[in-house]
Amino acid sequence: NAVMAAQMTDAHRRFLQVLMSNGITEGSEARKLHQHCCETDKVYYAQDKLDDFISTINSHLQPLFMQIRKGLSEDDGTAHYAVVNLAETEVTKMASDYTEIELELFRKTMDLIIVSENGFASSTDILNLADQLKTKKMKKKEAEQVLKGFVEDKWLSEKNGEYTLHTRCIIEMEQYILSNYQDVARKCNICHSLAIQSQVCESCGIGMHLPCVRKYFRGQTERRCPKCNEFWSCDTP
């Protein structure tokens, strides 16, 4: 296997270190970083070979149960990259950064987001959970600060008082969510990755990310479900 045989250069190491310190890196930034690392290390740089460059790093990370994963933003479909620890598949990977009570609030927030119809939970609903935590009750002011921290650390995204899972969270916790929320978690019928914010077919129940919906129906005169061929009744923004 050519990828397995490829040497991990200083350029690869530098790229990996930046990705790990970022938590998550947007696709255009990753491409710039790829070029910068190759030019700094004076190794061959090919503009369209980012995926190959990452595959080489991943082949060396495999024995460490780590992997650079690519995911798409549910808002606009842009690519993002994050380093995932495959050995820790649960929320426990956050345990070194947060207290037990903070993690409990995160789990409960995740519950609300995943079981919701639109992939969002209101700050009111989340803050109402703060005094029902098993670990110990949390004051609403304290809970607001904790939520702010989750947003700053890119585990949650917030828009007009509504919270959803950040792209970083979806990339890192996809397997955890799919196995722990089997009844409600679904994959996008187009890109086959986890769909938190999605439109759902009223006839057969498949889901699609909004960017995937837009891309799929672009240029089509009739909007029909890719699975059951029934009319797609959701409005496409």
From TrEMBL:
GO terms for biological process: double-strand break repair via homologous recombination. InterPro entries: Nse1 (IPR011513), Nse1_RING_C4HC3-type (IPR014857), WH-like_DNA-bd_sf (IPR036388), Znf_RING (IPR001841), Znf_RING/FYVE/PHD (IPR013083). Gene3D superfamilies: 3.90.1150.220, Winged helix-like DNA-binding domain superfamily/Winged helix DNA-binding domain, Zinc/RING finger domain, C3HC4 (zinc finger). Pfam families: SMC_Nse1, zf-RING-like. Component of the Smc5-Smc6 complex. RING-type zinc finger-containing E3 ubiquitin ligase that assembles with melanoma antigen protein (MAGE) to catalyze the direct transfer of ubiquitin from E2 ubiquitin-conjugating enzyme to a specific substrate. Involved in maintenance of genome integrity, DNA damage response and DNA repair. GO terms for cellular component: chromosome, telomeric region; nucleus; Smc5-Smc6 complex. GO terms for molecular function: ubiquitin protein ligase activity; zinc ion binding. This is Non-structural maintenance of chromosomes element 1 homolog. It is found in: Chromosome, Telomere; Nucleus. Keywords: Chromosome, DNA damage, DNA recombination, DNA repair, Metal-binding, Nucleus, Telomere, Transferase, Ubl conjugation pathway, Zinc, Zinc-finger. It comes from Vidua chalybeata (Village indigobird). Belongs to the NSE1 family. Its EC number is 2.3.2.27. It catalyses: S-ubiquitinyl-[E2 ubiquitin-conjugating enzyme]-L-cysteine + [acceptor protein]-L-lysine = [E2 ubiquitin-conjugating enzyme]-L-cysteine + N(6)-ubiquitinyl-[acceptor protein]-L-lysine. Residues 188-229 form the RING-type domain. The gene is Nsmce1.
